[in-house]
Amino acid sequence: MTNSWHGDLDDSTVTSRIGFRFSADGTRAACLATTGSGLHHAESWSLGEHGPVLDFSAELTCDPACTTVLPLDGERVLVSRHGVTGTQVVELLHGDGHLGVLGSVRGVPLALLPGPVECGGLALAWSGGGAGEGTAEGESTVYRVTTGTPWLQELVRLPGPVRDAVFCGPRILFTLGPASGPVRVLFDPRDGTTVRMPFLDGPSHVLAASEHHVLLAQRCPEGPVLARADLAGESIRPLDQDTPLRGVAYPLALEPSGTCVAVLETVGARSLLSCWNTESGEVHRIAVPEGELLPVAAWTTAGLWLPHSGPRRPRTMAWLPPDSRELRLPAVPAGPWLPGRVESFPGADGPVEAVVYGPDWRGCPRVVVTLHGGPNSHWTLGFNPLFQILAAAGIAVVAPNQRGSTGYGAGHTLALVGAWGVPDLADVSAVGAYVQANRADALERPAVFGISYGAYLALLAASTGPDLWSTCVAVAPFLSGPRLHTDGFAAVRGMVERLDGLTEATDALGPRDVTRFAADLRARLLLVHGARDESTPVAHSRLLVRQLAEAGRREDTDFHYLEPPDRGHTALGISVQDPVAAEVARFLTDGEPAAHGARLPAHERR
Predict the structure, then answer these.
(1) Is the separation of the CB atoms in 200 and 214 below 8 Å?
(2) 41, 60 in Cβ contact below 8 A?
(3) In this structure, which long-range contacts are made by residues 87-95, counting pairs with CB atoms below 8 Å and at least 24 apart in sequence?
(4) Which residue among 137, 214, 324, 535 is least packed, with the fewest CB closer than 10 Å?
């Protein structure tokens, strides 16, 4: 940390904002920002009747993937960092750049929540399952975070592990997950009292809350049902299920009276916004600049607040004033960013929508089909640093949302379950073939690029369709669903089980294991895998490198492997000047990751 800022910031220097958290009363927010040069900052925002105001931005040396910031007041934020040794350090960052350590814990980490002003501390924290000192197995202990000694002051013990927590005004509704089933407890940090809320127990998920109301998704045999709970009257009322919402709808926040719900509607690559009056049934469409909204929001008497980004606009805080029908964004100088657009391509079983950047792919010298990770994810019209890097290099980007992607309904998303590398591979191959068929014969064939699951899919596409692709770039790939389940971390194994990546394909291609097809891969190949990948084991890339070498492929000639020693799963970084992303752009343009031995160091691969 070397400098800090107060006042009007030239927002054009920021290319990424992540990890937005709101204060208990919704009047403040904090996030991590990254500049084009790769510097990270903690930002503190005030959210009032005149719109969002950036109170300060203080440089912070950190790994954004392992760092959380919480808003406190206009002069401080709380910083939580998780280290590779399993230690969590909690610090207090002042607007003038001063950073002081409050304390640390090892083992099971603390969950942090901004505390109401009345709670008397900086924030609230809890540990569960016997993780905290003196906490019994199956209990959760809630603490007040302070600047004193001890820095954690016990407030209450709850009879189960905390699964969720949401503010209801100054109180907090905890969802506990004991073996007997979900239990909900309303906790008041002002006096330390807890009240059981048995009428809220049962199979449901809390979507949003205000001081006196809670919006629930109740699980029923016929499917989830939205309902509104009245905390004072201890009653639950199902809501009209025929409300004309668009696309895949996600309730974001309840307005203070608890009557209206802000709903994020995902329609393919676009984000839409509506305000739904649950009493009258009216739905008001909100005019939203083209782009992506994040599903995190706060609603106060000054309006609705949530993050927004567009193709040429890095993420910032958006504001819907009271009684307005138009989402507002702060006025900032225009950056040097290139536009994005949406096009439709023929897939193997119907049209596939794609986000497109850069020159017209039909006539430019280089075009790359880019595949997202997840696999439960999708490309959006939000700001994308990698697409900006590639487009600035003169490369056309075609980013399809093939089957398995979210945002297009359950059928599109669930087509992947039990069929990894089957319908999605067919769609990617169809898009690639269409792109190639509509380019001049003299132009190079398309390249294929992917990250994580997309890297797995890119390797399958390049090896099962060797005549279609000129180049393949795979960042943090795995080799197959069963191998990922065997070698992966606990959260990844759970994802493989949930999406049934264990079932092997039985069609003509057979099991979709990259090692079965790697010998047929003839495209120029660049593999990139962070040595500290916490999601996809780096051993999978190392195994593929050995297999290619054993098949007679020469490293640094027929293929290239970069293993940045200080990178994790996000091997490309999140800035527009990231050196690893620059290597990828150079390889897609020139066929080499770097000239004259200037490439990133590779880890020893044994």
Answers:
(1) yes
(2) yes
(3) 90/125, 90/145, 90/151, 92/122, 92/147, 93/1, 93/42, 93/58, 93/60, 93/69, 94/58, 95/4, 95/6, 95/44, 95/55, 95/56, 95/58
(4) 137
Residue 238 CB contacts under 8 Å (≥ 6 apart), including other chains? 218, 225, 226, 227
Distances (CA, A) of 303 to 169, 253, 362, 432, 451: 16, 11, 45, 45, 37
First to last CA, the chain: 37
pLDDT of residue 11: 59
pTM, rounded to two decimals: 0.89
For the chain, the average pLDDT equals 90
The answer to whether the peptide bond before residue 375 is cis (omega within 30 degrees of 0) is yes
- Give dist(CA 560, CA 54) in Å, integer: 43
Can you list the alpha helix ranges (DSSP code H) found in 446-569? 453-464, 481-487, 490-498, 514-517, 538-550
Beta bridge pairs of residue 248? 266
How far is residue 355's CA from residue 118's CA, in Å, rounded to a whole number?
A: 47
Helical axes 579-590 vs 385-392, angle rounded to 10°: 40
356-372: pLDDT as tens digits: 999 999 999 999 999 99
* CB atoms closer than 10 angstroms to residue 269: 25
Residues 6+ apart with CB under 8 A from 292: 270, 271, 308, 309, 310, 380, 381, 382, 383
Looking at the predicted structure, is the pLDDT value of residue 354 above 60?
yes
**Cα–Cα distance for residue pair 239/217, rounded to 1 Å:** 10
**How many H helices and E strands in the chain?**
9, 37
Q: For residues 226 and 238, is the Cβ–Cβ distance under 8 A?
A: yes
Diameter over CA atoms, the chain: 75
- Of 54-68, 93-107, 174-188, the least confident: 174-188
Taking the C-alpha atoms of residue 127 and residue 560, their distance in angstroms, rounded to an integer, is 44
Kind and range of the H or E run holding 52: strand 51-59
275-300 per-residue burial string, b: 16 or more CB within 10 A, e: under 16: bbebeeeebeebebbbbbbbebbbbb
Residues 6 or more apart whose CB falls under 8 angstroms from that of 161 comprise: 128, 129, 138, 140, 176, 177, 178
* Count of alpha carbons within 13 angstroms of residue 582, beta-carbon side: 13
**In 239-335, at which residue ranges do the beta strands (DSSP E only) sit?**
248-254, 260-267, 270-277, 283-286, 292-293, 298-300, 303-310, 313-320
Cβ proximity of 223 and 237 under 8 Å: no
Q: Which two tokens stand for residue 487?
A: 């070698």
* 8 Å CB contact between 563 and 602: yes
Residue 50: CB atoms within 10 Å: 10
Distance, CA of 498 to chain centre: 18
CA distance 542 to 132: 39
As a whole number of Å, the CA-based R_g of the chain is 25
456 contacts 515 by C-beta, under 8 angstroms = no
Res. 592: pLDDT tops 80: no
Say how far apart CA 60 and CA 296 lie, in whole Å.
Answer: 23
How many whole angstroms separate alpha carbon 273 and alpha carbon 151? 41
Q: For 386-432, how does the pLDDT look when each residue is reduced to its tens digit (9 = 90+)?
A: 999 999 999 999 999 999 999 999 999 999 999 999 999 999 999 99
Give, to the nearest 10 degrees, the angle between helix 423-437 and helix 453-464: 60
